[in-house]
Amino acid sequence: MLSHLMPIILVGAVTLAIIIERVYSLYWRFPIDNHGFLNEIKQKILSNDVAGALQYCSNQGSALAPKVVKAGLLRASRDNRQIQAAIEIVVHESVGSIRKRVAYLAMLANVATLFGLLGTIMGLIKAFGAVANVDAATKSVMLADGISVSMNATASGLAVAIPAMIAFSVLQAKANRMTEDVEGAAMVTLDLLAARLYRDEWDDLGNPKNKPNIPVMSSDAKVKSA
User: Fold this and answer.
1) How many whole angstroms from its chain centre is CA 222?
2) Helix (H, G, I), strand (E, B), or coil: what is residue 15?
3) What pLDDT was estimated at residue 193?
4) What is the rounded distance in angstroms from the CA atom of residue 72 to the CA atom of residue 196?
5) Residues 114-152: pLDDT tens digits?
6) Are 26 and 174 in contact (CB under 8 A)?
7) What is the C-alpha to C-alpha distance for residues 106 and 134, in angstroms, rounded to an integer?
8) Going by C-beta distance under 8 Å and a sequence separation of 6 or more, which residues neighbour residue 45?
9) pLDDT at 52 over 60
């Protein structure tokens, strides 16, 4: 019986290890209050306190959005193309960290199910082979016992596969939300740094500074001047 279950137990142990690590990373290690964090960053950048914004990002531990913002802030004195390139590199690394090993859960669920079916079939083959040379009185008892042991393999495989699929769905949804947060932080950072670079060229009304405003003549004025 144990020989039929050993592959399933191994798959279950690997699945459990992945679930624990991903839950810790996606729910405790990587997340941050994205809205509050970006509001604080916005105030610091627009007040030209880049050093304060960098320090604030560094104080956020292992959260991913601050790493993306920090990558842009470190290139704040460069042109937009270099800022964007630096941010895209960190976004790519962050998305990889978010999605790492989540897809394995779906594969392990299928593998556990197949190992369960394989264990059942192998157990039935062994059970039928064992009763081939016994008397009729004990044949039915041995056959029933062999089938019972074999079906445990299927049940064990499903016991591993069902939680694995549930965990895959939940963690995949969480990973998608975190990916959107990281990409959103990247876009906000690019926008804020661009606004910081060009904010001195425009006034509050959207008119360019240091350039004369050309008055717009009405149609009546044009007729009188003619």
Assistant:
1) 62
2) helix
3) 85
4) 13
5) 999 988 888 888 777 777 677 766 777 777 777 877 788
6) yes
7) 44
8) 53, 73, 192, 193, 196
9) yes
- Reading the block at residue 159, the tokens are 């016991």
What tokens were used for 213? 């405003």
DSSP codes, 19-41: HHHHHHIIIIIS---HHHHHHHH
158's enclosing H/E stretch is helix 136-198
pLDDT value at 202 more than 50: no
Asked whether residue 89 carries a pLDDT value surpassing 90, the answer given is yes
Q: Can you tell me the distance from the alpha carbon of 58 to that of 60, in angstroms, rounded to the nearest whole number?
A: 6
| Residue 135 DSSP SS3 | coil
- Cβ–Cβ < 8 Å for 90, 67: yes
* E strands in the chain: none
CA distance 145 to 183: 57
The single-letter DSSP state of residue 208 is B
Contact 164, 101 (CB under 8 A): no
Which tokens belong to 149?
Answer: 């042991």
> What's the rounded Cα separation, in Å, for the pair 52 and 194?
18
